Amino acid sequence: MEFADCVKFANENPVAWLATVEGDQPRVRGMGMWYADETGFYFQTATMKEMVGQLEKNGKVEFAFYHPDEAVGTMLRVSGEVEFLDDVEIKKKVLADRPFLAEFGLTAEGPELVVFRISNGEAHFWDWESNVKPKEIIKF
């Protein structure tokens, strides 16, 4: 497998379970990934969410994408460190792609809209056939 396989799988299954840490307590939540490409995995959130403070204190995350099938399905697990993207043009693109965000009062110019990506890290796929085999790590 290659990183392009990870990008394809994530875009086809964009709901991810994202794990952060608050103190010594793991925190997990489902999120809709914005998109993935050769530069990484992109997400958006808002400053009113506790997750933003968690990411600012410790940017190391792990997230998992899942595709069910008739057996147990396939999972893609990705770990890395977030990079905050405070760029008005990127925020304008998020708002164009996800107009429902404006209903929360989020704007491209305001600090409340938070965009981040994971551009470096490692990933691996899991399915029933690979269940007890050593992980095939994909570095990106």
TrEMBL record:
Residues 7-96 form the Pyridoxamine 5'-phosphate oxidase N-terminal domain. It comes from the Archaea. SUPFAM superfamilies: FMN-binding split barrel. This is Pyridoxamine 5'-phosphate oxidase family protein. It comes from Methanobacterium formicicum.
